[in-house]
Amino acid sequence: MKWYQMDVDTVEQKLHVTTKHGLSDKQAGQRQKQYGPNQLASEKNVSKWLIFLKQFQDFMVLILLAATLIAGMLGEYVDAIAIMIIVLVNGFLGYFQEQKAEKSLAKLKEMSAPIAAVLRDGKWEKVPSRDVVVGDVVRIKSGDRIPADIRITQSSSLETEESALTGESLPVMKHAASIARDKLDAQDQVNMGFMSTLVTRGSGRGIVVGTGMNTVMGQIASLMVKTKKTTTPLEHKLAELGKILIAVALLLTALVVLAGVYQGHPVYNMFLAGVSLAVAAIPEGLPAIVTVALSLGVQRMIRKKAIVRKLSAVETLGCASIICSDKTGTMTENQMTVKEVFLNGKWLNVTGDGYDLEGNVILNNDMVDRNFPNLESMFLYGMLCNHASLMMKKGKYYVDGDPTDGALLVAARKLGLSHQLYDNYRVVKELPFDSDRKRMSIVVEDDNKMRFLITKGAPEVLLPRSNYVMREQGRKLMRTEDKQEMNLAVDKMADKALRTLAIAMRPLAKEESLHSAVLEKDLTLVGLYGMMDPPRKGVKTAIEECRDAGIKPVMITGDHEKTARAIASELSLLPEDGVVLNGYQLNTMSVSELQNIIDRVYVFARVTPEHKLKIVKALQEEGHVVAMTGDGVNDAPAIKASDIGISMGESGTDVTKEASSLILMDDNFATIKSAIIEGRNIYENIRKFIRYLLASNVGEILVMLFAMLLAMPLPLVPVQILWVNLVTDGLPAMALGLDQSENDVMKRGPRNPKEGIFARGLGFKIVSRGIVIGLVTLIAFMLAYQGNPDNLIYSQTVAFTTLVMAQLIHVFDCRSEHSFFARNPFENKYLVLAVLSSVLLLLVVIYWSSLQPIFHTTALNLKDWVMVLAFSCLPSVLFGFTKK
C-alpha cells in the first residue's frame, strides 16, 4: 500500500508518530543517522589533489617548468631547484586560497539553506530543511517550499505548484483524505506534498514520508546530477583585463629579451629572464585573490547579520542609490502591540509593550476585566482567527508567525484568556489571508455544535461587508452614523501611527453553505484594534548615514497612509517637501507618469506587491540602482526585478529568499546599511590590490627594460624576479583584501555601475608609481654598479632589495584613495604582519649563506641599507601628498 492510499491514522502508526506531539528529539536524531541528511546528492567535490595540480595548469607556469627543465639539462641545477621550489610554494599558496574560498562559499550555502517548521516534543521548531527526518510533522503555508515528501494530514485551502515535477503550471488543490486507487502518478496524488514544490495558497500540515534521494524529486535528481558555478561581473571583467595584461606583459617581456640578446647577453640567460619576468609581470594570482576577497567579505557580512546569496550582489551594493524598504519589521521592531481598542463606541487602552504578557485593559483610567460587554468575545475572536503561536525562549516570549497575529494573542492573554480555549473550538473551514483580499476568515464550531464565521482584516474591507454592528445591548443594524463613527475611529488611530484591524463575525446555521463566495457577507462588525510597531533602534541613524552616502531610503508599506507618514516623520525619513503616494494613486498612474515624480516620493502607503514592481521599474528607468526588500511570496517578482533583491531571514518565505541576492538575518534596515558599507569596502579593497599588484609588476618590467635599453647588465636574475613575485605580491595583496573601510566610505556617492576598474585615476596611479619604482630600483643598481663594477652580485642584491622594499612601502600607499599619510599604517594588523613576514624572508635570502648562491645575493652593510631605504621611500614620499 502506498502512502497516499493510507489514512492519517495508519501513517501515524507506521511511522510511530502522532500529529499532536510529533517526534521526540531522540527519535529525530536516530532517524537522521538511519536515513541521512534531507538533501539531494550533488556532484562529487573535486579532490584536493586535483585542486593542487590545477595550480600548475597556467600557461606561464608551464613555460616556467619547461625553462626549469632546460636549466637542469644545461647543468644549472641550483637555478632549476630554486625555481622549482618557488613554483611549488606559489602552487601551495594558490591551493590554500582556493580552499579557503570554497569553504567560505560552502558555509554561505549552508547558512542560506531553507528552513522548515517541525513539531518536536509537542513544540513547533524551525530547523534547516536538511535536518528534517522521516516521521517529522511539518507545517507549511503560502510561499513555503515543501522540505520533503509529505502525506498531508490537514489542509486549509492548500494549493501547490508542481511544475518542476510534472510540467503542469497550474496549482494543485490538496486535501488530507486517503485515495483508494492504485498506481497513481505524482500529479494525481493530491493528498501528498512533494519536496521542493511551492505552496501557492493556503496552509496545511503533513507527516514526512520521504527525504533526500528517497523523494520524487530525488528520483529525478538521480538521473542527472550537475552543479554550475557562475562568475560575478567583476570576476568576468578582471578575466578580460587579465588577457589584456598578458598580451602587454608578453610584448614588454619580448622587448626585454630582444634588447638583452642584442646587447650581447647569452640567449639562454635572456630566455630564462624573459620567462621569469613574464611570470612575475602577469598577476596570475588576481582571480584567486578576488575570489578570496569576495568570500572573506561575505563572511564579514554574515557576522553583521547579512547573508549574500549571489556574489554579484557584493559589487552591486556599492552602486545602490535607492533602498526601497518595508516598514514593518525592517524599519520597526516587528513586535506589534495592541495599544487601543474601539468597542461599543468606547475607547479602551491596553498597557504593556512587545510580547510581554504583563498588561491590562483600561477604560478612563480604570482597569476592566473580561466581563466588560463584548470584550471577551472580541479578544477570543482575535485569538481563534490566528495562525501565530506564543513561544518562550531564554525566559522571553516570542511569536512564531505573523506579528499582527502575535499582538492579538498577547492582548488575549493580558485579558486572561488561555490558549487552552482552543480545545473548545474546532476549525471547520479557513479562507486564508492574501494581499488582494486583505482579510482572513475561519468557520469554527463550538462544544455545542454551533457554528460561526470570524473575519479579521482591513477596516475599509470589512466595513462595506458589515450590515450589523456590535453594541453593549447586542447586535444592531449598521446605520450611516455607525459607519462614520468607525471611519473616524480609524482616522484617529492612524493619526497616532497605529495600525488598524477590524474584527467581524456572523452566526451560521448548521446546514448553511460554506462556499467562499457567500460566507464573508452580512457580517457583524465587533470592534477595532489599534496596534503600534515601534521604530527599531539604530534605524534613524542608518537613514541619516545612507542620505550622507547619496543613497535615498524609501519606505514601502501596506499600512494606512497616515500611519506610514507618522513613522516616516519619526525616523526623519520624510522631508518637509517629500511626497507620500498611496496604492490608489499608484493604480491611476502609468510607469512613465510615476517616473516623472518618483524622485520626490519618500513613502508609498497601502501598496500591494504588484505596486512594488511598478515602483522598481520607474526607479530603474530614472537610472537608479535599486535595492528592494520583501518577505511575501508575491514580493518575489519585484525582488527579482530589482538590482539588489533583499529578503527577510526571519519573516521571509523560501520563495522570496530564493529570488533575492541578500538575506537579512535580523530583518533590520540598519543591516542593509552595514551591507552597503561592506559592499563598497570589498570593491575598494579589490581596487587596492589591483593597484598594488599592477604597479609592482610595471616596476619589475621597467627596471629590466630600462637596463636593456641602456646596455647595462641584468639588474635582477630570474630567481630574484620570481622571489619578488612570491614574497612581495602574494601576502600583502591578500592582506589588502582584509583592509577596513575608510572613514569617508559612506560620505561618497554611489559608484556608477558602468565604472571601469581603472576609473577615478587608478590607471594613472598604477603607471606613475610603477615607473618611479622601476626608476629608483635602476638608479640604486647603477650607483652600486658604478661604485663596484667587479661585483655584479652586490649590485643585483642592492637592486633586488630596493625593489622589494619599495613595493612593501608602496603597499601602505595603496590603502587610501587620498594620500599615503591619510591613514594610520598600523590599522590593518594583517598587512603589518604580511609586510614583516616579507621583510624577514628578504633578510633570510640576503644574509643566510646557504641561500646566497641560490638567489645570487650577498650581505649588505648599514651604508647600503641607508641608500636602499632612501630610494625605496621615494615613490611613496613623491606621491604621498597628492590624491593623484
From TrEMBL:
* Catalytic reaction annotation: Ca(2+)(in) + ATP + H2O = Ca(2+)(out) + ADP + phosphate + H(+)
The EC number(s) this enzyme carries: 7.2.2.10
Q: Give GO terms for biological process.
A: intracellular potassium ion homeostasis; intracellular sodium ion homeostasis; potassium ion import across plasma membrane; proton transmembrane transport; sodium ion export across plasma membrane
User: Which keywords does this chain's UniProt record carry?
Assistant: ATP-binding, Calcium, Calcium transport, Cell membrane, Ion transport, Magnesium, Membrane, Metal-binding, Nucleotide-binding, Phosphoprotein, Translocase, Transmembrane, Transmembrane helix, Transport
Output the Gene3D superfamilies linked to this UniProt entry: Calcium-transporting ATPase, cytoplasmic domain N (3.40.1110.10), Calcium-transporting ATPase, cytoplasmic transduction domain A (2.70.150.10), Calcium-transporting ATPase, transmembrane domain (1.20.1110.10), HAD superfamily/HAD-like (3.40.50.1000)
Broadest EC class assigned to this enzyme: translocase
What Pfam families does its record include?
Cation_ATPase (PF13246), Cation_ATPase_C (PF00689), Cation_ATPase_N (PF00690), E1-E2_ATPase (PF00122)
Q: What domain of life does the UniProt record list for this protein's source?
A: Bacteria
What InterPro entries does the record point to?
ATPase_P-typ_cation-transptr_C, ATPase_P-typ_cation-transptr_N, ATPase_P-typ_cyto_dom_N, ATPase_P-typ_P_site, ATPase_P-typ_TM_dom_sf, ATPase_P-typ_transduc_dom_A_sf, ATPase_P-type_domA, Cation_transp_ATPase_P-type
Q: Which spans are transmembrane here? A: 56-74, 80-96, 244-264, 270-296, 689-711, 717-738, 766-785, 791-809, 830-850, 862-881
The reply on keyword Transmembrane helix is yes
Domain Cation-transporting P-type ATPase N-terminal: residue ranges: 2-76
Q: Name one GO molecular function term.
A: ATP hydrolysis activity
What Gene Ontology cellular-component terms does the record carry? plasma membrane
Q: What is its main location?
A: membrane
Q: Where in the cell is it found?
A: Cell membrane
Tell me the membrane topology, using the record's own terms: Multi-pass membrane protein
Q: Does the keyword Nucleotide-binding apply?
A: yes
The UniProt similarity line reads: Belongs to the cation transport ATPase (P-type) (TC 3.A.3) family. Type IIA subfamily.
Q: Which PANTHER family match?
A: CATION TRANSPORTING ATPASE (PTHR43294:SF21), SODIUM/POTASSIUM-TRANSPORTING ATPASE SUBUNIT ALPHA (PTHR43294)
Q: What is this protein called?
A: P-type Ca(2+) transporter
